[in-house]
Amino acid sequence: MEIPYTYKARPDTGLYNAKVGIWLFLASEIMLFGALFSAYILLRVSAPVGFWPDVALGWPRGLLNIPIGTFNTAVLITSSVTVVLAWASLKMNNFARFRVYMVITVVCALAFLGIKSFEYNDKFSHYVVRLKDGKALTGHIEVNGKHPRFWNFNDQWSVAKLTEQKVEKIKVEVDPPRDIHGHVKKDAGHGAAAHAAQEVAVSDIESMGSYTPATHPFFAVYFLITALHGLHVLGGALVLAYFAFPGAKMWKSNPEQFINRIEVGGLFWHFVDLVWIFLFPVVYLL
User: Fold this and answer.
1) How far is CA 93 from CA 201, 254, 255, in A?
2) CATH number for position 101
3) Structure confidence at residue 194 (pLDDT)
């Protein structure tokens, strides 16, 4: 028994089964990301007035790398264009060109994930150090001549761990001062002068922690949304890579159904790109 409308559209709706399925799936995805964006907005508007870390639960501003985020946005938009060109190439019966565009799409996805991992490394190796006199320092730290790295979770430091390992002093490459909007103050200097190293005695530290979800609600939501989005990028890239190589066998046996599969994969990819287009201004710019 043949399942109807697997690749031919229903005459009354103009849709085939897979397209109906992907739209229903994307509707559930919209509810998922909509809830997360709503949680982020509610946390932000309810945060105390003041700039974190000077105000413990004030909202952090200016801590994300906008140029890198902008470049990553361009990478994803490029991948949206190439996935459409891949589908259009099949419609023109040009399989070789389809494969080229699909490979470019997958490469863009991997580039996006690589750049995102670079951002994660910066956050996991960036610390807020609160002193017993009430001051708060933020910046990269140096312990025994080494800088912590995201890739080595044993490098995550705390006051208890420093005390246990009998570390007496650490260096903090202090971030330049910022105004209430998160902008670096004009008189903060540039380069090394803006990140002057300051030696801090462990006995003077009240608490410390890297920019992880446990440090502030902003980082909790930031890592949750971006990591979930990253998983969608990875999943979509794997599916598109499958269509470009082993799954491409269907092009010879049932080209119409294969084209429909590419269209469905492209719809998911556009959704992934659209989520980032909302995520970037909301989290990075506002």
Assistant:
1) 69, 13, 9
2) 1.20.120.80
3) 54
Residue ending a domain, among 183, 210, 237, is: 210
- Tally of domains in the chain: 2
Q: Can you give the residue range of the structural domain that contains 24?
A: 17-122+216-285
Instruction: Please indicate, yes or no, whether residues 24 and 142 belong to a single structural domain of this protein.
Output: no
Give the residue from 44, 41, 87, 66 showing the smallest Cα distance to 284. Answer: 66
Q: What is the CA radius of gyration of the chain?
A: 24
Which of 30-44, 136-150, 239-253 is the least confident region?
136-150
**Closest to 72 (Cα-Cα) out of 263, 229, 249:** 229
Mean residue pLDDT across the chain:
89
Per the DSSP assignment, residues forming a β-bridge with 184 are 178
Whether the pLDDT of residue 283 is over 70: the answer is yes
Rounded to the nearest 5 percent, the helix, strand and coil shares of the chain are: 60, 15, 25
Q: 58 with 44: CB under 8 angstroms?
A: no
pLDDT score at 178: 76
Are both 91 and 223 inside the same structural domain?
A: yes
Q: What are phi and psi of 216, to 5 degrees?
A: -160, 145
- 4 lies in a domain? no
